[in-house]
Amino acid sequence: MKSPYVSELQPNNVVTATFLVQNKDIRQKKTGEPWLALILGDRTGEIEAKMWDNVSEVVETFDRDDFLRVRGLVQVHHNRLQLAIHKLQKQDAASVDYTDYYPASERNPDEMYRELRDIAAGIGNEHLRTLVLAVIDDPVTAPKLRIAPAAKNVHHAYLGGLLEHVLSMCGLAKLVASHYRDVDVDLLLAVSSCTTSARWMNSPTIAASVTAARVNYSDIFTSGCA
Fold it and tell me: What is the residue range of 132's domain?
């Protein structure tokens, strides 16, 4: 867990912390030298940040949506907190925990992934089960599936939101199948499990996974819809 968060910053304190660059603006002093106006943030909020000196050395080393390790003085400007940056350095995205910077599901993503995989493994139709597992187990897709939001806004718009949404759809599928006895629960679960995977199916990795699994689409739709 990172520290401090934006919400923990106090005036007149020198801090060293990592933040997400939400906005980057390069401006000029009267002397013609550049200075930086940034908006830095994490999951608790955002703060304006300025860097006045030695900007030419770092200005091209990072961009918006990068993570920066900064050292600076927290000040009050026009009744709002502002960070005067003394030093900054871009951080590798792999070194940060995304849940420190973006809203995230309250559920553990690995736990949700295991639950979804158990649902897929329980699909009775062999062809549907093979197809769904090929998507879920894909080495490129699986890590993204654990963190992806379901949408930009409206619903489940946070890290892990896609898994929450898919599990919810699977739960509804089971409920519908228990009420309408003629409904094919395997087909409903397969569609629910892959409800947002249309673009993944166009990827070479997914296509190769399906081919390797020897999935026959005519078998899926013949036996799955029988």
Answer: 103-224
- The span from the CA of 4 to the CA of 12, in Å, is 14
Specify if 52 maps to a domain: yes
* CATH number of the domain to which 68 belongs: 2.40.50.140
Question: Taking Cα atoms as reference points, which of 211, 199, 200, 94 lies closest to residue 141?
Answer: 200
The three-point CA angle 84-103-169 to 5° equals: 165
Give the pTM: 0.69
pLDDT reported for residue 224: 41
CA atoms within 13 A on the CB side of 87: 7
| Counts for the chain of helices (H) and strands (E), in that order | 7, 5
**Calpha distance 109→107 (Å, rounded):** 6
Q: Is 54 left (phi over 0), alpha (psi -120 to 50) or beta?
A: left
Q: Which helix (H) or strand (E) holds 120?
A: helix 109-121
Domain termination site, one of 43, 71, 97: 97
Q: Domain boundary residue among 63, 97, 131?
A: 97
Consecutive 10-residue averages of pLDDT for the chain (226 residues): 91 96 95 96 96 96 96 96 97 92 92 95 93 88 86 85 92 92 90 64 51 47 42
Residue in this structure with the two tokens 């026009």, named with its chain if needed: 78
